[in-house]
Amino acid sequence: MRDTQTSAVPVIEAKDLNLVFQTADGPVHALKDVNLVINPGEFVSFIGPSGCGKTTFLRAIAALEHPTGGTLTVNGMSPDEARRKRAYGYVFQAAGLYPWRTIAGNIRLPLEIMGFSKAEMEERINRVLDLVELSGFGKKFPWQLSGGMQQRASIARALAFDADILLMDEPFGALDEIVRDRLNEETLKLWARTGKTIGFVTHSIPEAVFLSTKIVVMSPRPGRITDIIDSPLPKDRPLDIRDSREFIEIAHRVREGLRAGHQDD
Amino acid sequence: MRNLIPILTVLAGIFVLWYAASVWMNSTWVYDQAERAGVTVTFAEVIPQTMAQDRPLLPPPHQVGAELWKGLFGQAITSKRSLVYHGYVTFKGTMMGFGLGILAGVLLAMSIVRFRVMDMSVMPWAIISQTIPIVALAPMIIVVSSQMGLTGRDLPKAIIAAYLSFFPVLVSMVKGLRSPDQMQLDLLRTYGASEWATFLKLRLPASMPYFFASLKVAIAASLVGTIVGELPTGAIEGLGARMLIGSQFGEPLIMWAALFAAAILAGMLIVTVGFLERFARARMGVVG
Question: Are the beta carbons of A100 and B284 separated by less than 8 Å?
Fold first, then answer.
Protein backbone atom coordinates (compact mmCIF):
# COMPACT_ATOMS: atom_id res chain seq x y z
CA MET A 1 0.00 0.00 0.00
CA ARG A 2 2.74 2.41 1.02
CA ASP A 3 4.48 1.74 -2.23
CA THR A 4 1.55 2.92 -4.33
CA GLN A 5 1.23 6.05 -2.22
CA THR A 6 4.84 7.13 -2.58
CA SER A 7 5.09 6.42 -6.29
CA ALA A 8 3.32 8.76 -8.66
CA VAL A 9 -0.28 8.16 -9.67
CA PRO A 10 -0.52 5.98 -12.76
CA VAL A 11 -0.76 8.00 -15.93
CA ILE A 12 -3.54 5.81 -17.26
CA GLU A 13 -5.62 3.41 -15.25
CA ALA A 14 -8.49 1.35 -16.67
CA LYS A 15 -10.67 -0.76 -14.40
CA ASP A 16 -13.21 -3.18 -15.87
CA LEU A 17 -13.54 -0.87 -18.81
CA ASN A 18 -16.33 -1.67 -21.24
CA LEU A 19 -17.30 0.10 -24.42
CA VAL A 20 -20.26 -0.95 -26.51
CA PHE A 21 -21.11 0.69 -29.83
CA GLN A 22 -24.73 0.67 -30.90
CA THR A 23 -24.79 -0.05 -34.60
CA ALA A 24 -27.50 -0.87 -37.11
CA ASP A 25 -26.54 -4.55 -36.82
CA GLY A 26 -26.91 -4.48 -33.04
CA PRO A 27 -24.45 -3.73 -30.26
CA VAL A 28 -20.73 -4.25 -30.88
CA HIS A 29 -18.59 -4.97 -27.86
CA ALA A 30 -15.48 -2.97 -28.74
CA LEU A 31 -13.86 -3.27 -25.30
CA LYS A 32 -14.69 -5.87 -22.67
CA ASP A 33 -13.42 -5.81 -19.09
CA VAL A 34 -10.16 -4.06 -19.85
CA ASN A 35 -7.83 -3.64 -16.88
CA LEU A 36 -4.57 -1.81 -17.42
CA VAL A 37 -2.18 0.45 -15.54
CA ILE A 38 0.34 2.62 -17.36
CA ASN A 39 2.99 4.33 -15.26
CA PRO A 40 4.83 7.57 -16.05
CA GLY A 41 7.55 7.27 -18.65
CA GLU A 42 6.40 3.92 -20.01
CA PHE A 43 6.27 3.12 -23.70
CA VAL A 44 3.21 0.94 -24.15
CA SER A 45 2.27 -0.72 -27.43
CA PHE A 46 -1.17 -2.07 -28.21
CA ILE A 47 -1.07 -4.88 -30.72
CA GLY A 48 -3.77 -7.07 -32.18
CA PRO A 49 -5.78 -7.75 -35.32
CA SER A 50 -8.23 -5.18 -36.58
CA GLY A 51 -11.39 -5.00 -34.51
CA CYS A 52 -9.60 -5.85 -31.28
CA GLY A 53 -10.31 -2.43 -29.83
CA LYS A 54 -6.74 -1.12 -29.67
CA THR A 55 -7.60 2.10 -31.45
CA THR A 56 -10.87 2.39 -29.53
CA PHE A 57 -8.94 2.15 -26.26
CA LEU A 58 -6.56 4.90 -27.38
CA ARG A 59 -9.50 7.04 -28.45
CA ALA A 60 -11.18 6.45 -25.10
CA ILE A 61 -8.05 7.74 -23.35
CA ALA A 62 -8.26 10.82 -25.58
CA ALA A 63 -11.98 11.25 -24.76
CA LEU A 64 -12.84 10.76 -28.42
CA GLU A 65 -14.95 7.74 -27.42
CA HIS A 66 -16.81 7.37 -24.16
CA PRO A 67 -16.77 4.10 -22.19
CA THR A 68 -20.12 2.54 -21.36
CA GLY A 69 -18.87 0.82 -18.20
CA GLY A 70 -15.99 0.69 -15.73
CA THR A 71 -13.61 3.52 -14.96
CA LEU A 72 -10.83 5.15 -16.91
CA THR A 73 -8.56 7.82 -15.47
CA VAL A 74 -5.85 9.87 -17.12
CA ASN A 75 -3.43 11.50 -14.68
CA GLY A 76 -6.01 10.68 -12.02
CA MET A 77 -8.71 12.66 -13.85
CA SER A 78 -11.50 11.76 -16.23
CA PRO A 79 -10.41 11.74 -19.88
CA ASP A 80 -12.48 14.88 -20.57
CA GLU A 81 -10.82 16.76 -17.73
CA ALA A 82 -7.42 15.51 -18.81
CA ARG A 83 -8.04 16.88 -22.28
CA ARG A 84 -8.88 20.28 -20.86
CA LYS A 85 -5.59 20.15 -18.94
CA ARG A 86 -3.82 19.32 -22.24
CA ALA A 87 -2.63 15.99 -20.89
CA TYR A 88 -1.95 14.38 -24.24
CA GLY A 89 -0.95 14.91 -27.83
CA TYR A 90 -2.51 12.63 -30.43
CA VAL A 91 -0.85 11.39 -33.61
CA PHE A 92 -3.17 9.86 -36.19
CA GLN A 93 -2.47 7.24 -38.80
CA ALA A 94 -2.31 9.87 -41.52
CA ALA A 95 -0.26 12.99 -40.90
CA GLY A 96 -3.36 15.09 -41.57
CA LEU A 97 -1.43 18.30 -42.03
CA TYR A 98 -3.48 21.21 -43.35
CA PRO A 99 -2.37 21.68 -46.94
CA TRP A 100 -2.98 25.44 -46.76
CA ARG A 101 -0.59 25.89 -43.84
CA THR A 102 3.19 25.64 -43.86
CA ILE A 103 4.85 23.07 -41.60
CA ALA A 104 5.42 25.78 -38.99
CA GLY A 105 1.83 26.93 -39.49
CA ASN A 106 0.57 23.41 -38.85
CA ILE A 107 2.54 23.15 -35.63
CA ARG A 108 1.22 26.57 -34.66
CA LEU A 109 -2.40 25.30 -34.99
CA PRO A 110 -2.81 23.78 -31.50
CA LEU A 111 -0.85 26.68 -30.01
CA GLU A 112 -3.24 29.20 -31.61
CA ILE A 113 -6.25 27.33 -30.29
CA MET A 114 -4.74 27.11 -26.82
CA GLY A 115 -3.87 30.78 -26.83
CA PHE A 116 -0.09 30.90 -26.51
CA SER A 117 1.68 34.22 -27.00
CA LYS A 118 3.33 34.94 -30.35
CA ALA A 119 6.85 34.81 -29.01
CA GLU A 120 6.22 31.56 -27.21
CA MET A 121 4.68 30.01 -30.32
CA GLU A 122 7.83 30.74 -32.33
CA GLU A 123 10.07 29.39 -29.59
CA ARG A 124 8.04 26.18 -29.30
CA ILE A 125 7.79 25.64 -33.05
CA ASN A 126 11.56 25.87 -33.38
CA ARG A 127 12.09 23.55 -30.46
CA VAL A 128 9.79 20.76 -31.67
CA LEU A 129 10.99 21.06 -35.27
CA ASP A 130 14.47 20.51 -33.89
CA LEU A 131 13.22 17.57 -31.84
CA VAL A 132 11.89 15.73 -34.89
CA GLU A 133 14.88 16.84 -36.99
CA LEU A 134 12.93 19.07 -39.34
CA SER A 135 14.73 22.34 -38.58
CA GLY A 136 14.73 24.51 -41.67
CA PHE A 137 11.54 22.96 -43.06
CA GLY A 138 9.18 25.31 -41.21
CA LYS A 139 8.44 27.42 -44.27
CA LYS A 140 7.74 24.46 -46.56
CA PHE A 141 4.24 23.34 -47.41
CA PRO A 142 3.23 19.73 -46.61
CA TRP A 143 3.23 18.61 -50.26
CA GLN A 144 6.89 19.54 -50.48
CA LEU A 145 7.77 16.90 -47.86
CA SER A 146 7.95 13.10 -48.09
CA GLY A 147 5.41 10.94 -46.25
CA GLY A 148 7.86 10.16 -43.46
CA MET A 149 8.71 13.83 -42.99
CA GLN A 150 5.01 14.73 -42.91
CA GLN A 151 4.43 12.19 -40.17
CA ARG A 152 7.38 13.63 -38.23
CA ALA A 153 5.82 17.07 -38.59
CA SER A 154 2.56 15.71 -37.20
CA ILE A 155 4.47 14.31 -34.22
CA ALA A 156 6.04 17.73 -33.72
CA ARG A 157 2.54 19.20 -33.78
CA ALA A 158 1.47 16.80 -31.02
CA LEU A 159 4.55 17.68 -28.97
CA ALA A 160 4.24 21.45 -29.31
CA PHE A 161 2.07 22.08 -26.27
CA ASP A 162 4.10 19.94 -23.86
CA ALA A 163 1.61 17.21 -23.05
CA ASP A 164 3.05 14.47 -20.82
CA ILE A 165 1.36 11.75 -22.80
CA LEU A 166 1.80 11.02 -26.48
CA LEU A 167 -0.88 8.82 -28.05
CA MET A 168 0.05 7.40 -31.44
CA ASP A 169 -2.46 5.49 -33.54
CA GLU A 170 -0.54 3.40 -36.10
CA PRO A 171 1.50 6.48 -36.96
CA PHE A 172 3.87 4.67 -39.32
CA GLY A 173 1.38 2.17 -40.74
CA ALA A 174 1.22 3.83 -44.13
CA LEU A 175 4.99 4.16 -44.57
CA ASP A 176 7.43 1.74 -46.18
CA GLU A 177 9.66 -0.52 -44.09
CA ILE A 178 12.87 1.49 -44.48
CA VAL A 179 11.29 4.80 -43.48
CA ARG A 180 9.49 3.01 -40.71
CA ASP A 181 12.74 1.63 -39.23
CA ARG A 182 14.23 5.09 -39.15
CA LEU A 183 11.17 6.64 -37.59
CA ASN A 184 11.10 3.88 -34.97
CA GLU A 185 14.67 4.72 -34.00
CA GLU A 186 13.81 8.41 -33.90
CA THR A 187 10.74 7.75 -31.80
CA LEU A 188 12.88 5.96 -29.24
CA LYS A 189 15.36 8.85 -29.20
CA LEU A 190 12.51 11.30 -28.78
CA TRP A 191 11.07 9.24 -25.95
CA ALA A 192 14.47 9.09 -24.21
CA ARG A 193 14.95 12.85 -24.55
CA THR A 194 11.47 13.95 -23.48
CA GLY A 195 10.61 11.27 -20.92
CA LYS A 196 7.00 11.21 -22.08
CA THR A 197 4.56 8.38 -21.55
CA ILE A 198 3.70 6.93 -24.94
CA GLY A 199 0.72 4.84 -25.99
CA PHE A 200 1.37 3.31 -29.41
CA VAL A 201 -1.07 1.32 -31.52
CA THR A 202 0.45 -0.99 -34.13
CA HIS A 203 -0.12 -4.28 -35.87
CA SER A 204 3.53 -4.97 -36.47
CA ILE A 205 5.10 -7.38 -33.97
CA PRO A 206 8.72 -6.23 -34.54
CA GLU A 207 7.66 -2.60 -34.17
CA ALA A 208 5.86 -3.31 -30.89
CA VAL A 209 8.75 -5.32 -29.43
CA PHE A 210 11.41 -2.90 -30.60
CA LEU A 211 9.74 0.18 -29.12
CA SER A 212 7.94 -0.85 -25.97
CA THR A 213 8.61 -1.32 -22.32
CA LYS A 214 5.18 -2.92 -22.11
CA ILE A 215 3.28 -4.76 -24.84
CA VAL A 216 -0.48 -5.15 -24.57
CA VAL A 217 -1.74 -7.99 -26.76
CA MET A 218 -5.42 -7.71 -27.67
CA SER A 219 -7.92 -9.87 -29.53
CA PRO A 220 -11.26 -9.18 -31.18
CA ARG A 221 -14.95 -10.07 -30.67
CA PRO A 222 -15.21 -8.85 -27.99
CA GLY A 223 -12.17 -6.55 -27.89
CA ARG A 224 -10.11 -7.57 -24.86
CA ILE A 225 -6.59 -7.87 -23.48
CA THR A 226 -5.15 -11.38 -23.74
CA ASP A 227 -1.60 -10.73 -22.53
CA ILE A 228 0.51 -7.95 -21.03
CA ILE A 229 4.25 -8.37 -21.53
CA ASP A 230 6.84 -6.29 -19.67
CA SER A 231 9.84 -6.10 -21.92
CA PRO A 232 13.22 -6.97 -20.38
CA LEU A 233 15.07 -5.17 -23.19
CA PRO A 234 17.32 -2.27 -22.12
CA LYS A 235 16.17 1.29 -22.74
CA ASP A 236 18.95 1.92 -25.21
CA ARG A 237 18.08 -0.11 -28.28
CA PRO A 238 20.05 -0.19 -31.51
CA LEU A 239 18.22 -1.56 -34.57
CA ASP A 240 20.20 -4.83 -34.49
CA ILE A 241 18.75 -5.68 -31.10
CA ARG A 242 16.09 -7.27 -33.25
CA ASP A 243 18.43 -10.18 -33.90
CA SER A 244 19.03 -10.79 -30.20
CA ARG A 245 17.66 -13.80 -28.32
CA GLU A 246 15.51 -11.79 -25.93
CA PHE A 247 13.93 -9.88 -28.78
CA ILE A 248 13.00 -13.05 -30.61
CA GLU A 249 11.62 -14.60 -27.43
CA ILE A 250 9.36 -11.61 -26.74
CA ALA A 251 8.23 -11.53 -30.36
CA HIS A 252 7.42 -15.22 -30.03
CA ARG A 253 5.33 -14.60 -26.93
CA VAL A 254 3.42 -11.79 -28.66
CA ARG A 255 2.72 -14.09 -31.59
CA GLU A 256 1.49 -16.81 -29.24
CA GLY A 257 -0.79 -14.28 -27.55
CA LEU A 258 -2.22 -13.18 -30.87
CA ARG A 259 -2.78 -16.78 -31.92
CA ALA A 260 -4.50 -17.65 -28.64
CA GLY A 261 -6.91 -14.79 -29.18
CA HIS A 262 -7.82 -16.19 -32.55
CA GLN A 263 -8.57 -19.72 -31.41
CA ASP A 264 -12.22 -19.08 -30.76
CA ASP A 265 -12.78 -17.95 -34.36
CA MET B 1 0.88 29.82 -79.37
CA ARG B 2 -0.17 26.19 -79.44
CA ASN B 3 -3.30 27.10 -77.50
CA LEU B 4 -4.07 29.88 -79.93
CA ILE B 5 -4.29 27.80 -83.09
CA PRO B 6 -7.31 25.68 -82.07
CA ILE B 7 -9.09 28.77 -80.73
CA LEU B 8 -8.50 30.68 -83.95
CA THR B 9 -9.62 27.68 -86.00
CA VAL B 10 -12.92 27.50 -84.14
CA LEU B 11 -13.31 31.27 -84.47
CA ALA B 12 -12.73 31.11 -88.22
CA GLY B 13 -15.31 28.33 -88.45
CA ILE B 14 -17.85 30.46 -86.59
CA PHE B 15 -17.21 33.41 -88.90
CA VAL B 16 -17.73 31.29 -92.01
CA LEU B 17 -21.00 29.87 -90.65
CA TRP B 18 -22.12 33.30 -89.50
CA TYR B 19 -21.53 34.89 -92.92
CA ALA B 20 -23.28 32.01 -94.62
CA ALA B 21 -26.25 32.34 -92.30
CA SER B 22 -26.34 36.12 -92.85
CA VAL B 23 -26.47 35.70 -96.60
CA TRP B 24 -29.20 33.08 -96.31
CA MET B 25 -31.38 34.99 -93.85
CA ASN B 26 -30.94 38.49 -95.25
CA SER B 27 -31.45 37.41 -98.86
CA THR B 28 -35.19 37.04 -98.24
CA TRP B 29 -35.48 40.80 -97.97
CA VAL B 30 -33.37 41.34 -101.10
CA TYR B 31 -35.54 38.93 -103.11
CA ASP B 32 -38.72 40.64 -101.79
CA GLN B 33 -37.43 44.04 -102.81
CA ALA B 34 -36.50 42.74 -106.26
CA GLU B 35 -39.91 41.16 -106.73
CA ARG B 36 -41.68 44.38 -105.84
CA ALA B 37 -39.47 46.29 -108.23
CA GLY B 38 -40.20 43.66 -110.85
CA VAL B 39 -36.61 42.70 -111.46
CA THR B 40 -34.78 39.47 -111.06
CA VAL B 41 -31.50 39.30 -109.26
CA THR B 42 -28.76 36.74 -109.55
CA PHE B 43 -27.21 35.15 -106.51
CA ALA B 44 -23.96 37.06 -107.13
CA GLU B 45 -25.93 40.31 -106.95
CA VAL B 46 -27.70 39.25 -103.79
CA ILE B 47 -24.60 38.64 -101.69
CA PRO B 48 -23.31 42.25 -101.47
CA GLN B 49 -26.84 43.43 -100.66
CA THR B 50 -27.07 41.08 -97.70
CA MET B 51 -23.94 42.55 -96.18
CA ALA B 52 -24.98 46.16 -95.63
CA GLN B 53 -28.65 46.35 -94.76
CA ASP B 54 -29.92 48.81 -92.17
CA ARG B 55 -32.18 46.27 -90.49
CA PRO B 56 -30.83 42.85 -91.29
CA LEU B 57 -32.42 39.76 -89.83
CA LEU B 58 -28.94 38.56 -88.96
CA PRO B 59 -26.26 41.22 -89.18
CA PRO B 60 -22.96 39.87 -90.53
CA PRO B 61 -19.90 40.06 -88.23
CA HIS B 62 -18.40 43.20 -89.76
CA GLN B 63 -21.60 45.18 -89.21
CA VAL B 64 -21.82 44.06 -85.58
CA GLY B 65 -18.14 44.82 -85.18
CA ALA B 66 -18.55 48.33 -86.57
CA GLU B 67 -21.58 49.03 -84.39
CA LEU B 68 -19.75 47.69 -81.36
CA TRP B 69 -16.73 49.86 -82.14
CA LYS B 70 -18.95 52.88 -82.53
CA GLY B 71 -20.69 52.10 -79.26
CA LEU B 72 -17.48 51.57 -77.33
CA PHE B 73 -15.15 54.20 -78.77
CA GLY B 74 -17.31 56.34 -81.08
CA GLN B 75 -18.46 58.78 -78.39
CA ALA B 76 -17.78 60.14 -74.96
CA ILE B 77 -18.18 57.38 -72.42
CA THR B 78 -20.72 59.50 -70.55
CA SER B 79 -23.03 59.61 -73.59
CA LYS B 80 -26.30 57.69 -73.44
CA ARG B 81 -25.28 56.05 -76.70
CA SER B 82 -22.02 54.75 -75.32
CA LEU B 83 -21.86 51.06 -74.62
CA VAL B 84 -19.14 51.81 -72.08
CA TYR B 85 -21.68 53.85 -70.14
CA HIS B 86 -24.37 51.16 -70.33
CA GLY B 87 -21.80 48.49 -69.63
CA TYR B 88 -20.76 50.33 -66.49
CA VAL B 89 -24.40 50.51 -65.30
CA THR B 90 -24.73 46.76 -65.83
CA PHE B 91 -21.35 46.14 -64.23
CA LYS B 92 -22.39 48.09 -61.14
CA GLY B 93 -25.61 46.08 -60.85
CA THR B 94 -23.71 42.84 -61.37
CA MET B 95 -21.22 43.61 -58.63
CA MET B 96 -23.95 44.57 -56.17
CA GLY B 97 -25.88 41.40 -56.93
CA PHE B 98 -22.68 39.36 -56.77
CA GLY B 99 -21.79 40.75 -53.35
CA LEU B 100 -25.30 40.23 -52.07
CA GLY B 101 -25.39 36.72 -53.53
CA ILE B 102 -22.05 35.76 -51.94
CA LEU B 103 -23.21 37.10 -48.60
CA ALA B 104 -26.52 35.25 -48.74
CA GLY B 105 -24.93 32.05 -50.06
CA VAL B 106 -22.15 31.94 -47.47
CA LEU B 107 -24.41 32.81 -44.52
CA LEU B 108 -27.02 30.26 -45.54
CA ALA B 109 -24.35 27.60 -46.06
CA MET B 110 -22.89 28.33 -42.63
CA SER B 111 -26.23 27.91 -40.93
CA ILE B 112 -27.11 24.82 -42.98
CA VAL B 113 -23.87 23.12 -42.01
CA ARG B 114 -24.27 24.16 -38.39
CA PHE B 115 -27.97 23.47 -37.84
CA ARG B 116 -29.65 20.31 -39.01
CA VAL B 117 -33.00 22.10 -38.91
CA MET B 118 -31.74 24.60 -41.48
CA ASP B 119 -30.43 21.79 -43.63
CA MET B 120 -33.86 20.17 -43.71
CA SER B 121 -35.92 23.35 -44.06
CA VAL B 122 -33.89 25.79 -46.16
CA MET B 123 -32.07 23.56 -48.62
CA PRO B 124 -35.18 22.26 -50.44
CA TRP B 125 -36.47 25.83 -50.82
CA ALA B 126 -33.14 27.00 -52.12
CA ILE B 127 -33.35 24.33 -54.82
CA ILE B 128 -36.98 25.14 -55.62
CA SER B 129 -36.11 28.83 -55.88
CA GLN B 130 -33.90 28.05 -58.85
CA THR B 131 -36.64 26.27 -60.76
CA ILE B 132 -38.76 29.43 -61.00
CA PRO B 133 -37.91 31.26 -64.23
CA ILE B 134 -36.24 34.52 -63.29
CA VAL B 135 -37.96 36.28 -66.20
CA ALA B 136 -41.29 35.66 -64.46
CA LEU B 137 -40.00 36.68 -61.09
CA ALA B 138 -38.08 39.82 -62.04
CA PRO B 139 -41.11 42.10 -62.65
CA MET B 140 -42.61 41.02 -59.34
CA ILE B 141 -39.45 41.84 -57.45
CA ILE B 142 -39.46 45.28 -59.03
CA VAL B 143 -43.13 45.90 -58.26
CA VAL B 144 -42.76 44.75 -54.66
CA SER B 145 -39.65 46.79 -54.03
CA SER B 146 -41.23 49.97 -55.43
CA GLN B 147 -44.29 49.22 -53.28
CA MET B 148 -41.95 49.14 -50.31
CA GLY B 149 -40.77 52.60 -51.18
CA LEU B 150 -37.46 51.67 -52.73
CA THR B 151 -36.91 54.21 -55.44
CA GLY B 152 -34.31 53.70 -58.08
CA ARG B 153 -33.57 50.52 -59.91
CA ASP B 154 -30.27 49.58 -58.35
CA LEU B 155 -31.55 47.54 -55.44
CA PRO B 156 -34.24 45.49 -57.20
CA LYS B 157 -31.72 44.74 -59.93
CA ALA B 158 -29.18 43.63 -57.36
CA ILE B 159 -31.79 41.42 -55.69
CA ILE B 160 -32.61 39.74 -58.98
CA ALA B 161 -28.91 39.21 -59.67
CA ALA B 162 -28.35 37.90 -56.14
CA TYR B 163 -31.32 35.54 -56.54
CA LEU B 164 -29.42 33.78 -59.30
CA SER B 165 -25.90 34.06 -57.93
CA PHE B 166 -26.43 32.95 -54.33
CA PHE B 167 -27.27 29.40 -55.35
CA PRO B 168 -23.93 28.17 -56.73
CA VAL B 169 -22.18 29.77 -53.76
CA LEU B 170 -24.57 28.07 -51.35
CA VAL B 171 -24.20 24.61 -52.86
CA SER B 172 -20.42 24.81 -53.09
CA MET B 173 -19.98 26.25 -49.61
CA VAL B 174 -22.16 23.56 -48.04
CA LYS B 175 -19.96 20.96 -49.71
CA GLY B 176 -16.78 22.84 -48.84
CA LEU B 177 -17.64 23.43 -45.19
CA ARG B 178 -18.42 19.73 -44.89
CA SER B 179 -15.25 18.63 -46.67
CA PRO B 180 -12.97 18.11 -43.61
CA ASP B 181 -12.85 14.40 -42.76
CA GLN B 182 -13.46 12.84 -39.36
CA MET B 183 -9.77 12.61 -38.56
CA GLN B 184 -9.25 16.34 -39.05
CA LEU B 185 -12.26 17.06 -36.85
CA ASP B 186 -11.00 14.62 -34.20
CA LEU B 187 -7.62 16.33 -34.23
CA LEU B 188 -9.23 19.63 -33.28
CA ARG B 189 -11.31 17.88 -30.63
CA THR B 190 -8.09 16.62 -29.00
CA TYR B 191 -7.06 20.27 -28.69
CA GLY B 192 -10.39 21.05 -27.05
CA ALA B 193 -11.12 23.51 -29.87
CA SER B 194 -14.41 25.40 -29.71
CA GLU B 195 -16.91 25.13 -32.51
CA TRP B 196 -16.02 28.63 -33.66
CA ALA B 197 -12.31 27.76 -33.72
CA THR B 198 -13.11 24.62 -35.72
CA PHE B 199 -15.00 26.78 -38.19
CA LEU B 200 -12.29 29.41 -38.52
CA LYS B 201 -9.24 27.15 -38.55
CA LEU B 202 -10.56 24.13 -40.42
CA ARG B 203 -13.95 24.39 -42.12
CA LEU B 204 -13.53 27.84 -43.62
CA PRO B 205 -10.05 27.39 -45.11
CA ALA B 206 -10.99 23.89 -46.32
CA SER B 207 -13.97 25.36 -48.18
CA MET B 208 -11.96 27.97 -50.10
CA PRO B 209 -11.29 25.90 -53.25
CA TYR B 210 -15.03 25.18 -53.44
CA PHE B 211 -15.80 28.85 -52.88
CA PHE B 212 -13.60 30.11 -55.69
CA ALA B 213 -14.89 27.46 -58.08
CA SER B 214 -18.42 28.69 -57.38
CA LEU B 215 -17.51 32.36 -57.91
CA LYS B 216 -17.00 31.87 -61.63
CA VAL B 217 -20.51 30.47 -61.97
CA ALA B 218 -21.93 33.06 -59.60
CA ILE B 219 -20.50 36.08 -61.41
CA ALA B 220 -21.89 34.88 -64.74
CA ALA B 221 -25.27 34.20 -63.12
CA SER B 222 -25.19 37.64 -61.55
CA LEU B 223 -24.57 39.28 -64.92
CA VAL B 224 -27.45 37.38 -66.49
CA GLY B 225 -29.65 38.37 -63.55
CA THR B 226 -28.74 42.03 -63.93
CA ILE B 227 -29.47 42.04 -67.64
CA VAL B 228 -32.80 40.31 -67.07
CA GLY B 229 -33.46 42.86 -64.33
CA GLU B 230 -32.92 45.63 -66.85
CA LEU B 231 -35.34 44.21 -69.39
CA PRO B 232 -38.84 44.49 -67.94
CA THR B 233 -38.36 47.53 -65.82
CA GLY B 234 -38.69 50.23 -68.35
CA ALA B 235 -35.07 50.83 -67.57
CA ILE B 236 -33.29 53.18 -69.87
CA GLU B 237 -29.82 52.33 -68.70
CA GLY B 238 -27.75 49.19 -68.88
CA LEU B 239 -26.95 46.63 -71.52
CA GLY B 240 -30.28 44.85 -70.92
CA ALA B 241 -32.20 48.06 -71.62
CA ARG B 242 -30.07 48.59 -74.72
CA MET B 243 -30.99 45.12 -76.00
CA LEU B 244 -34.66 45.79 -75.33
CA ILE B 245 -34.53 49.12 -77.15
CA GLY B 246 -32.81 47.45 -80.07
CA SER B 247 -35.48 44.82 -80.34
CA GLN B 248 -38.46 47.14 -79.77
CA PHE B 249 -37.34 49.74 -82.29
CA GLY B 250 -36.36 47.12 -84.82
CA GLU B 251 -32.68 47.95 -84.64
CA PRO B 252 -30.96 44.59 -84.67
CA LEU B 253 -27.54 46.21 -84.86
CA ILE B 254 -28.03 47.91 -81.50
CA MET B 255 -29.23 44.64 -80.03
CA TRP B 256 -26.30 42.66 -81.33
CA ALA B 257 -23.76 45.26 -80.28
CA ALA B 258 -25.21 45.26 -76.74
CA LEU B 259 -25.15 41.47 -76.76
CA PHE B 260 -21.47 41.43 -77.64
CA ALA B 261 -20.70 44.15 -75.12
CA ALA B 262 -22.33 41.92 -72.49
CA ALA B 263 -20.22 38.98 -73.67
CA ILE B 264 -17.05 41.07 -73.39
CA LEU B 265 -18.09 42.20 -69.90
CA ALA B 266 -18.75 38.58 -68.90
CA GLY B 267 -15.33 37.58 -70.21
CA MET B 268 -13.59 40.32 -68.26
CA LEU B 269 -15.43 39.44 -65.05
CA ILE B 270 -14.61 35.75 -65.32
CA VAL B 271 -10.95 36.45 -66.07
CA THR B 272 -10.81 38.76 -63.03
CA VAL B 273 -12.33 36.10 -60.79
CA GLY B 274 -9.84 33.60 -62.24
CA PHE B 275 -6.95 35.89 -61.25
CA LEU B 276 -8.38 36.28 -57.76
CA GLU B 277 -8.61 32.52 -57.47
CA ARG B 278 -5.03 31.98 -58.58
CA PHE B 279 -3.83 34.61 -56.15
CA ALA B 280 -5.72 32.99 -53.28
CA ARG B 281 -4.47 29.51 -54.21
CA ALA B 282 -0.89 30.73 -54.25
CA ARG B 283 -1.42 32.25 -50.81
CA MET B 284 -2.73 28.89 -49.61
CA GLY B 285 0.30 26.99 -50.83
CA VAL B 286 -1.16 25.38 -53.94
CA VAL B 287 0.74 25.63 -57.19
CA GLY B 288 -0.84 25.61 -60.63
Answer: yes
